[in-house]
Amino acid sequence: MPTWIDYIVSVNATIRETMRILDKGVLRIVLVCNEADELLGTVTDGDIRRSLLNNANMNDCITEVMNKTPTVMLNNTSISERLEIMKSLDLLAVPIIDDKGVLIGVETLAQALKPPKRDNPVFIMAGGFGTRLQPLTDHCPKPMLRVGNKPMLEHLINQFISFGFHSFFVSTHYLPEVIRDYFGDGSKWGVSIQYVHEDMPLGTGGALGLLPKDRPNLPIIMMNGDVLTKLNYAQLLNHHEAHGFDATLCVREDEYRVPFGVIETQNQLITNMVEKPTYRYKINTGIYILSPEIVNSVKENQRIDIPTLLEEHRANNKRIGTYTSYDYWLDIGQMKDYQKAQSDIETYFKES
Asked: pLDDT, tens digit, for every residue of 194-233?
């Protein structure tokens, strides 16, 4: 099945070449991008038909007939907003761009109305002690702390369900019975939930070695259970598959402005002076997609952290990529984060 990347053409493509892509008949739209993957325009059957009626030649450049001001949506546009836009404009597909105009996906009306069933397992790490949130975690695992009227783990699972995921694994260690008693086998939510228990902490990646071997041979989405996010998991998975990555780290862009002038020197001589510079960097959100091969490389009861695991595979020439998210994301590590989650819940999780 073609992915949205198969519908991208360069600025040098001809009308004939573009028609061949449109003839695949699935997406009904072709995306014209430059070498930096910036979206320059879109092409539909109607655009080509009108150009031919105006005496265009099949060998003309597609940039002559493309729609240079197409309707687009930003990555952080909610599903409900996407539906409203597509319905109001009678659109079947709309490109998704980031804040720099780079094409990162395509939303279709069919996807927005009913997410397809996704058999990729979801593995949520929920075994931590949550010591920085004591005394709240004295008798409750951190992922089970309530944010609004639900445990944060339930908000996470509901978000995955909204994108068609139905097969869940949850790792436990601290107070596992609290999680098991609440979620059971997942049938209350119409999904399957299985548990893997760490008798002793195995690091951020060691629990992978405890997963059952008869799970689907598909990439796994793995994440920490103490995160609240409105991440589009379907788009993350599409990105991973379209780029042929062996593992994908979901990252966020952050920045820090130094409140002083920064002086750079070499051998006591000033080489550069920068007044209050801003440093930009990407942070790890604790959300990953891992290929079956990487998951299977973790042995039972092996202690290993995810960065170490991925670095080992990167050194062996595996394709370890990133996906930059602009969606709501909050790591609940300290009491101030938990308090912020309580104030954010009505804004970001009304449907949950």
From this structure: 999 999 999 999 999 999 999 999 999 999 999 999 999 9
Rounded Cα–Cα distance for residues 124 and 161 (Å): 14
Of 164-168, 173-177, 344-348, the range with the lowest mean pLDDT is 344-348
Identity (one letter) of the amino acid at 106? V
Tokens matching residue 26: 């699935």
Measure the CA–CA gap between 300 and 213, rounded to whole angstroms.
11
Give CA–CA dist 349/176, Å, rounded.
Answer: 26
Query: Residue 226: phi, psi to the nearest 5?
Result: -110, 30
Q: Which helix (H) or strand (E) holds 140?
A: none
**Strand, helix or coil for residue 299:** coil
Among 314, 292, 249, 235, CA closest to 5: 235
Q: Rounded to 5 degrees, what angle do the CA atoms 334, 340, 345 make? A: 125
Distances (CA, A) of 109 to 4, 81, 82, 88, 162: 14, 12, 8, 12, 15
What is the layout of strands, in order, in the sheet containing 30-33?
Answer: 8-9, 30-33, 39-43
- Whether the per-residue pLDDT at 57 is higher than 60: the answer is yes
d(CA 329, CA 210): 28
pTM assigned to the model: 0.68
Q: Which DSSP string do the residues of 232-275 spell out, in sequence order?
A: -HHHHHHHHHHTT-SEEEEEEEEEEE-SSEEEEEETTEEEEEEE
Beta bridge partners of 55: none
In contact, 92 and 113? CB cutoff 8 Å = no
Contacts of 169 (CB under 8 A, 6+ apart): 121, 122, 123, 124, 193, 194, 195, 196, 211, 215
First to last CA, the chain: 32
Residue 152 predicted with pLDDT over 60: yes
Residue (of 21, 112, 99, 324) closest to 31 by Cα position: 21
pLDDT in tens, 236-286: 999 999 999 999 999 998 888 888 898 889 898 889 999 888 888 899 999
Q: Find the Cα–Cα–Cα–Cα dihedral 126, 129, 130, 131, rounded to 10°.
A: -170
